[in-house]
């Protein structure tokens, strides 16, 4: 087997889309294009067996205040039955990180926590990172292969009632790829930011993300309107067998618009032939003091089952990495995560 950079979109997409169940859009060609637009350098490394792509890693090279990194979100990927071939990809990633003079290499495979392959990471010199990043932690998955009636009955009783109430009140949910409609998302995100006191990605980040993914049919905006006013918005990413609730924002209101919006996104993902709906992150426990408890409770009302990933693993390269680790340790404890 050999590893080399993959420069052909069709070859890469055929490989990534074959990763089921739960196809990782963070390894898609389009997500890489978005990251390049944000200023990251991109490597798509492939593991080839007799010319056939059987493994790969889309790696992003970027910088933060404390150091330079190479990051592989929801990867590396391998065809089933090739777990032992994980090491060559890791070694190729290490070479890239050293050539780019990075301070550390971070990978986040789509494995469940406790997967036996974690031992391969340990043997290769990786250590668990102290905080989850955009692809780590625990998520909630909903099986869309069930009937609509089964999905409704799988909801918490209160959630099902609020979906019905929103519909009876006249809430309308619209689905669009129109870039002009993204302004409503930006406005509600600012309101949500003030209310919940969190720091989302920049307006430019959200704008470029949608501009890149929407024309490819991967990104869609859902808007819940009541009497002509937008009360809730969500960005849904559809890729392979999975639709993901990536972003959401809303106004504080007595009208339960967010509940109907979420149900319509689920229902339309099912109609589009997706097998899974990913709520994209929940608190790892039911601790009411956890900062993510509120929106986790909202998401869990729709049913589904939790999936805890193995999380991020770091390969330190320079001494500066330890300043990164210390800062992340402080952030984790400061946020009570």
Structure description:
There is one protein chain. This protein has helices at residues 9-17, 29-37, 86-99, 118-123, 148-153, 157-169, 182-196, 203-213, 257-271, 293-300, 321-334; strands at residues 2-5, 41-49, 52-64, 67-73, 77-78, 104-108, 127-128, 138-143, 172-176, 219-226, 229-239, 242-250, 276-278, 305-308, 313-316. The protein is globular, with a radius of gyration of 20 Å. By secondary structure, it is of the alpha+beta class. Helix 2 runs antiparallel to helix 8 (203-213) and helix 6 (157-169) packs across helix 9 (257-271). A hairpin with a 2-residue loop joins strand 2 (41-49) and strand 3. It contains eleven helices and 15 strands. The protein has two domains: 2-133 and 309-334, Aminopeptidase (3-Layer(aba) Sandwich); 139-308, Aminopeptidase. The longest helix is centred in the middle third of the chain and has 15 residues, at 182-196.
Number of strands: 15
The CATH class designation of the largest domain is: Alpha Beta
As a percent range, the share of helical residues equals 25-40%
Structural class: alpha+beta
The CATH homologous superfamily of the largest domain is termed: Gcn5-related N-acetyltransferase (GNAT)
How would you state the average pLDDT, rounded?
93
């Amino acid at each position: 087997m050999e590893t080399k950079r993959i420069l052909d979109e069709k070859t890469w997409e055929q490989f990534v889309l074959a990763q089921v169940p739960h196809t990782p859009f963070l390894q898609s060609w389009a997500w890489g294009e978005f990251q390049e637009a944000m200023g990251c350098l991109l490597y798509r490394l492939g593991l080839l067996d007799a010319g056939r792509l059987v493994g790969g890693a889309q790696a992003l090279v970027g910088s933060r205040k404390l150091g330079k990194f190479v990051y592989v979100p929801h990867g590396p990927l391998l065809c089933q039955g090739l777990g032992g071939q994980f090491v060559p990809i890791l070694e190729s990633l290490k070479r890239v990180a050293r050539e780019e003079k990075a301070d550390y290499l971070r990978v986040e495979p789509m494995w469940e926590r406790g997967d036996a392959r974690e031992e391969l990471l340990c043997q290769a010199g990786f250590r668990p990172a102290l905080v989850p990043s955009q692809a780590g932690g625990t998520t909630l998955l909903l099986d869309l292969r069930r009937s609509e009636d089964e999905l409704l009955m799988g909801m918490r009783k209160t959630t099902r009632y609020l979906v019905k109430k929103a519909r009876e009140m006249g809430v309308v949910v619209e689905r669009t790829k129109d870039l002009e409609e993204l302004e409503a998302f930006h406005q509600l995100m600012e309101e949500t930011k003030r209310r919940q006191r969190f720091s989302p990605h920049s307006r430019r980040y959200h704008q470029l993300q949608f501009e890149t993914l929407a024309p490819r049919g991967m990104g869609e905006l859902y808007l819940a309107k009541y009497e002509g006013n937008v009360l809730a918005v969500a960005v849904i990413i559809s890729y392979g067998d999975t639709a993901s609730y990536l972003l959401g924002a809303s106004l504080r209101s007595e009208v339960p618009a967010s509940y109907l919006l979420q149900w319509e996104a689920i229902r339309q993902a099912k109609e589009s032939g997706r097998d899974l709906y990913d709520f994209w992150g929940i608190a790892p426990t039911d601790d009411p003091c956890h900062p993510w408890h509120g929106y986790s409770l909202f998401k869990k009302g729709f049913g589904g089952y939790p999936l805890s990933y193995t999380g991020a693993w770091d390969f330190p390269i320079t001494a500066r990495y330890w300043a990164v680790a210390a800062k992340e340790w402080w952030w984790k404890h400061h946020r009570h995560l």
